[in-house]
Design brief:
This protein has four helices and eight strands; from the N terminus they run ααααββββββββ. By secondary structure, the protein is α/β, with parallel strands linked by helices.
Length: 200
């Protein structure tokens, strides 16, 4: 308060205005302080709302990811089928078996110069009907599987072929040998990839 009030003297109108203005300033400062405290507390009250929104978004993302996976699995499952190729055609089979009977690893065991062995005779339940093979300028004969091991017949025991690759197994009992061959189609042509002939 002013000196005039403390000494019991009457204050002039100017002094009263100064006192009132000072009191208003103090009240304004107090109000600003209270408002600032309220403003600081506001973000804490809104925090739970933000977390709820994030929690609701998570299941949507998981569902989208779950729906995308079956499509990826279907594509992965389709790849091996496309790589394997389709079934071998009759022309494919003719070229495959021709390469096998002309295999240099097999030739020493055929002994086509001996009586009853020329022209070459072959047998096997998986040999396509109507196939035409040639060995040493003579057509190969397709005959029923022999009952005796002494019969000079090359028996095909397994033929697994697609339009890109073939695996062949055979036996030649009269010479006591078994063989296998892998034939692959490279750059549009069938080629003997590898072969093996063993005695038993």
């Amino acid at each position: 308060m002013s000196n005039c009030a403390s000494h019991g003297q009457a204050c002039t109108s100017d002094e009263r205005l100064v006192i009132i203005a000072s009191m208003k300033a103090v009240v304004a400062l107090l109000c600003l302080g209270l408002l600032g405290g309220c403003a600081e507390g506001t973000p804490n009250a809104e925090a739970p709302d933000d977390s709820d929104e994030l929690y609701e978004d998570d299941p949507v993302e998981q569902t989208a990811a779950g729906e995308a996976k079956p499509a990826d699995d279907a594509e992965d499952a389709a790849e091996p089928a496309s790589e394997g190729g389709g079934a071998a055609s009759p022309q494919d089979m003719q070229e495959i078996l021709q390469l096998v009977i002309n295999d240099e690893a097999l030739d020493p065991y055929l002994h086509l110069e001996e009586p009853g062995r020329f022209p070459l005779q072959i047998s096997g339940g998986e040999i396509p009907s109507g196939i035409e093979l040639v060995k040493n300028t003579q057509p190969v004969k397709v005959v029923p599987e022999p009952d005796k091991k002494e019969a000079p017949v090359l028996v095909f025991t397994s033929i697994e072929a697609t339009s890109k690759e073939a695996r062949i197994k055979y036996r030649y009992d009269v010479e006591g040998v078994r063989g296998s061959a892998t034939v692959k189609k490279l750059e549009g042509r069938w080629q003997l990839s590898n072969s093996r002939v063993t005695e038993y």
